[in-house]
Write a structure and sequence with these properties.
Layout (H helix, E strand, L loop, with lengths): L1 E7 L4 E7 L5 E8 L7 E6 L2 E6 L5 H14 L6 E8 L10 E2 L2 H9 L8 H14 L4 E6 L9 H4 L5 H7 L8 H15 L7 E7 L3 E7 L2 E5 L21 H10 L3 H10 L2 H6 L5 H9 L3 H25 L4 E5 H6 L1 H10 L9 H6 L6 E2 L10 E4 L4 H13 L1
Parallel strand pairs: 1-6, 6-8, 9-12, 12-14
Antiparallel strand pairs: 1-2, 2-3, 3-4, 4-5, 7-8, 9-10, 10-11, 13-14
The site of adenosine-5'-diphosphate has 13 residues, from helix 10 and helix 12.
Length: 395
């Protein structure tokens, strides 16, 4: 069954038509810089890549153009449903849902927790319902997979009233990716869907790691917002919250602007002063750029430290899974992180590590004895997971 997958961000709308069973992609596209004169619609179909300027286009214009592309490609009548990425489902959604007026109301109720993401997600749902009224629409939540975390993992040690009255707790994100690669890793290891002790590290521009025990998320590094946890491209990850007050007093900056800096000008970018992009930093570090070297060191050390912390939630380890643009491609980051975690029994296989790039999956550690944990590279495919959930709910 073909599914249209939509991922609407604040200034972009990504779309894909794919077969939920085989993962075959019939058409993929991205409308970027929406609401600006530089807006473009880029798509790929039948081996051809096309980019068209759509100056000033908003989500509505862009999605109309995308649906027109599907019609021209003869794909509209093959669609069985539409799957939407929705970032924040708070505690209201522990699984993907067929979209009803009640579901929309609940997604709206989550807007205070996901103020940047849920409004464009809702906009995409409304426009798709209008443009494709005959199709079942499904919401797939980034937070849903982590709803199995126990209270000890999701509760912050702050006044409990903040949780009870203001929903202040750890939610976790990237759940669709963590769920997808955990399932793939289980299959690669010959484990049943309800077995295994896995650490999944999703390392893209945003980065998070999850402890997956017997197929369920039991702890994760992102929290109330995607700012917590690992060092990321532009986000700091976890820091002492008291630094906000200190920097405010020292510089006169407002707490809001400091939070903005922690989100947009920290992490790899803030440390290196050069780039938020790991590939660029690896090249700079190799050429002797000291701050790029420091950025990579801090990134890998914090990642290894938080992965080690997450093993407490598992009690043992069967496999560490790398995914996302950095996890799937950075031979250097994987080498450093597996090296730092050698005490868990991981032993890198340098040749296998060098081979696992550009979409290749596989084991990157030496086999060891039957109980030795493994490190795996598993390319993520969030669109496919959304399409699979959508197809299941259509059926
Ligand atoms: P997003 O979170 O936006 O989907 P990606 O998952 O595509 O991002 O990951 C982007 C990151 O992956 C960037 O830091 C990029 O430099 C990194 N990356 C991609 N290819 C390589 C590579 N060959 N070596 C190192 N890092 C890479």
């Amino acid at each position: 069954m073909n599914i249209l997958v939509l991922n609407c961000g604040s200034s972009s709308a990504k779309f894909a038509v794919l077969d939920a069973r085989t993962g075959a992609e019939h058409l993929t596209g991205n409308a970027q810089r929406l609401g600006t004169p530089e807006a473009t619609l880029d798509w790929r179909h039948a081996g051809q890549s096309v980019s068209r300027p759509i100056p000033g286009a908003d989500h509505d214009v862009a999605l109309r153009a995308a649906v027109a592309l599907l019609r021209e490609a003869g794909l509209e009548q093959t669609l069985g449903g539409v799957g939407h990425r929705v970032v924040h489902g708070a505690t209201r959604f522990a699984q993907s849902m067929r979209i009803t007026p009640e579901v929309i109301a609940q997604v709206e109720a989550c807007v205070p927790l996901g103020p940047l993401h849920n409004p464009p997600n809702l906009l995409g749902i409304r426009i798709a319902q209008e443009l494709l009224p005959g199709l079942v629409q499904v919401a797939v939540f980034d937070t849903a997979f982590h709803q199995t975390m126990p209270p000890r993992a999701y509760t912050y040690p702050v006044p409990l009233e903040w949780l009870e009255q203001h929903e202040v707790r750890r939610y976790g994100f990237h759940g669709t990716s963590h769920r997808y690669v955990a399932q793939k890793a289980q299959a690669m290891l010959g484990l049943a869907p309800d077995a295994g002790a896995l650490l999944t590290a999703h390392l893209g521009n945003g980065c998070s790691a999850t402890a997956v025990l017997n197929g369920r998320s039991v702890d994760t590094t992102m929290g109330l917002t995607p700012l917590e946890g690992l060092v990321m491209g532009t986000r700091s990850g976890s820091v002492d919250p008291a630094l906000v007050g200190h920097v405010a007093r020292a510089t006169g900056a407002t707490p809001e602007s400091i939070l903005d800096t922690l989100n947009k000008r920290s992490g790899l970018l803030g440390l290196s002063g050069h780039s938020n992009d790991m590939r660029t930093l690896e090249a700079a570090a190799a050429a002797g750029h000291a701050r790029a070297q420091l950025a990579i060191e801090v990134f890998c050390y914090v990642l290894a430290k938080q992965l080690a912390g997450l093993t407490v939630a598992l009690g043992r380890l069967d496999a560490l899974v790398f995914t996302g643009g950095i996890g799937e491609n950075s031979v250097l980051v994987r080498e450093k992180v597996v090296g730092l975690l050698g005490f868990l029994g991981l032993v890198l296989d340098p040749e296998a590590n060098a081979r696992a790039i550009r979409g290749h999956d596989g084991r990157i550690t030496l086999p060891g004895d039957a109980h030795a944990p493994q490190a795996l590279v598993v390319p993520t495919h969030e669109e496919l997971m959304i399409a699979m959930d959508t197809a299941a709910l259509v059926a």
